[in-house]
Amino acid sequence: MSNPYQPQDPNNPYGQQPQQPQQPYGQQPQQPYGQQPQQPYGQQPYGQQPQQPYGQQPYGQQPYGQQPFVQGGYAVPSAAGMYASWGIRFGAYFLDVLILLIPSVIINLITGIGVTANFNLTGSTSSASSLGMYIIGSLLNLIINIGYFAYFHGTTGQTIGKKIVKIRVIRRTNQPMDFVVAVKRLAITIASTVINLVIGMISFNSIDDIAAGNLSAATASFGFLGIISFVIGIATLLDYLWPLWDGQKQALHDKIADTLVVRA
What we know:
Largest sheet: 2 strands, antiparallel
Shape: elongated
Domain RDD: 83-257
Subcellular location: Cell membrane
Pfam families: RDD (PF06271)
Region (Disordered): 1-62
Main location: membrane
């Protein structure tokens, strides 16, 4: 029943509500100036992202300039602060050397006992059997060192020492590490070890020259060995010190294998 006290609209005698003007298809009704249309709770306009408080990142996103680690490989860092410093790398290597010292001591004890026993029997430390013990011990140490670093770097990029100090070896191409790349990082170590092995073998012959009274030949041999040892020492020192002035904190063996050492 209509209200008898309310005047009726002559154009709307039956009390119907006036029709609202229709908007063209796809357009939203205009809002008063300075106001935004209210959205249903929890929904955002299509194509727009919710605004975050200033200085905060949405969950799961990385701060500007940093790359997240990705599955299968590890993203190349874009921030210089993610490269492992020389001091941290040295600490990781020192821990690895302590670990590798255990089998090295055992091998050296066994070969040393063999050389001593041979000397007691033959009266010479440079006989074929003594030289053989020296070669066997050196090769065993080399194999253990190569196996240790190649396995850990080729699988996870972290040796035990690197895992303790929280750094990791990655490839600059953002591909997963493998054993080939890991062995390339050991190229300088392998070369220096083999050269030192040859030097040791020559030293055995020099001892024979001294025992035979041929001092001139022994002096020439030791002089040659001294020069080679000096060159190897300089190359090894440069390899380990190179991260101190390199922009990406790479050692020479990193440049050979195209790898980086980053914070994990």
